[in-house]
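Entry for the shared binder. Reason: the reviewer on the internal report wants the predicted structure included alongside the sequence.
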Amino acid sequence: MKMKKGKMNKKSTIFRLIEEGYRIYVATQSAIFKELTISEELKPYIKFFDCLLEENRDWYKNKITEVNKKVFGPLGMPPTLWSDHHFGIACGVTLGFLDPSGEPISMMRFIRRFEINAIHEWSLMVDPEYEGQGFGKATLALGCELSKNKEKISFTTQLNNKSIALYLHLTNEGAPLELTAIGFHHTYPNSILAITDIPKDSESIMKEYNMPSISEGVLINEDTKLSLGKYLICATDLSAIKKISSDLKEGAHYRIIGWYLNWK
């Protein structure tokens, strides 16, 4: 059953950015675009690119690939044209903000999961020139706003990636950020898969997230005994990663509640 598209708060960060001259782009295929929960208030400010059409091929290739290069560098790990098509267009969505001149400055890409009513975000980035201005949170909020007919959002990242601090804003309404897998086959051995509810109010993502003091935690290792509610600290240590993966396999539950840079 398709969810009825409700009204959107015109005092939200998304509309504030629109008032400042920014616009929204959505690149996917027509059938998927129709399923997005786009409010009538937001619709006039969205530019849709049907990227199954030949006429939009160069736009996606030149504009989206360019944001990738700015973030990762030409020799970094931007996805291939093959994955761009399958996971960013044919089976997924690529969206973000355009600057006042019409150039993409942020990007969120996600696909639908088969086993649960969820989306899986697989790429979230901001042009380095716009970092530190809230565009990461705003883009994440935009993706959630357009996915209100889904219940949950999952993502893959690495333990040492600062994006975890961004994803914690998804929990501002109280839903936990559950760790579901760690150390699997991915770009790096410290990769994690986590999931939480899509916020009912996407603007909640823009609010401050208060991390607990790291002094309350215990560094996890192979001998750490689990108990309900214990606050554990996981470094990018392979033995700790193996332990957590084994614990998850046995039915243990881990929640991500903080991310700390240079905590040692």
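Summary line for the report: The mean pLDDT is 89.
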